[in-house]
Amino acid sequence: MTSQILSDCSALRLLFLSTPVAPLGTGLGGGVELTLYNLAIEMTQRGHRVQIVAPEGSQLPQSADAAPVAIAQIPGKLQTSAQTQHYTDPITLPPESVLGNMWDYARQAQHDVDVLVNFAYDWLPLYLTPFFQRPVAHLISMGSLSAAMDAAIQQVARMFPGTLAAHSHAQVDTFPDAGGFRVLGNGLDLSRYEFCAEPENRLGWVGRLAPEKGLEDAIALAAQTQIPLSVWGAMPDPAYWQQIQQRYPDAPVEYRGFLSTEELQQDLGRCRALVMTPKWVEAFGNVAVEALACGVPVIAYRRGGPSEIVTDGETGWLVEPDQVAELVAAVDKLGQIDRAACRRRAEAHYSKQAMGDRTEQWFRDLLQKRSPSAIAQTFG
Ligand code: UDP
């Protein structure tokens, strides 16, 4: 590593390795897709060189004010997402694994980059870390879900201090040995989100339509209040959606599909509130910040990332998890929330620039740790 790379203003060469569960642009990768896109654009605008490695068929939205980021399109079978597995399940990879192929690409490309950045919630990149000659930074996107992953994370924390980052303290606390993470939060390009002062009388729910997201509780809320609920998001399992609709036949609910950020923010902005009803410890909850950026208050269970994003009584309401009656009570109090305060909160804490600063510092710190002089000091 040269001293030039370590200086605080030198351009970095970054290789971003995406999630292997779906091509970028499908929404099936969840919040990772937006996080990776925002960081790629932000780092490019700062003069760093970014290349993305992602499953074949990946697409990114075009940014008006940044050059397109190159994507190495990797063929292979997609990985099953960790949320569908049990804690003690063994790690499995399909034949012709796209995850294996992506990391084989990384192995060959590593000599042209300063940092490899892993966005996948998978065991293989953690396990492979010591086999790489370049530092691997792991942005872990979910809480503890797998014993094998937990062990691999612990090993990386021990062998390569400073290389692990997460989105929230609540997420970090789910891991058995919670030390060793840098908490980065997240950030958005707020210029893509328009403030809406005058909402319609409807509520919004955004996310993958999957059991861990607890859509059924938001639908129960719609059934009780008879306030229309708009639902947006990728649908990995249509049977789950049909089943919860049948449970609440009188709920005024409309599924509006998986939209681009531009379309989503326009429609979401007109809601009285975003309702977040996760059944798991949500690592962050990009959608909470997206709602605030539009001036939409957030009603969320006091659990995981949203409980760190929402200021109770100021930018929304935090309620006892799994209590639909409390969601109803929170809707009654929405008049107390100032929508302009929601937008201000997003601007003060969740801009793409602020996230870019924290992330760039993380890369520079870990390069510093790996510099020959730092290694000599440790072992000298
Ligand atoms: N999303 C979108 N269009 C939609 C619905 C959702 O682009 O119609 C995106 C949303 O912007 C967010 C992601 O889907 O980035 C959901 O991420 P979140 O962090 O809320 O949850 P995850 O799926 O990662 O658990």
UniProtKB/TrEMBL annotation:
Upper classification of the organism: Bacteria, Bacillati, Cyanobacteriota, Cyanophyceae, Oculatellales
Glycosyl transferase family domain ranges (all copies): 198-338
Gene Ontology molecular function terms on file: glycosyltransferase activity
InterPro entries per the UniProt record, alphabetical: Glyco_trans_1, Glycosyltransferase_grp1
Pfam families from the UniProt entry: Glycos_transf_1
Keyword annotations: Transferase
Name assigned to this protein: Glycosyltransferase family 4 protein
UniProt organism field: Thermoleptolyngbya sichuanensis A183
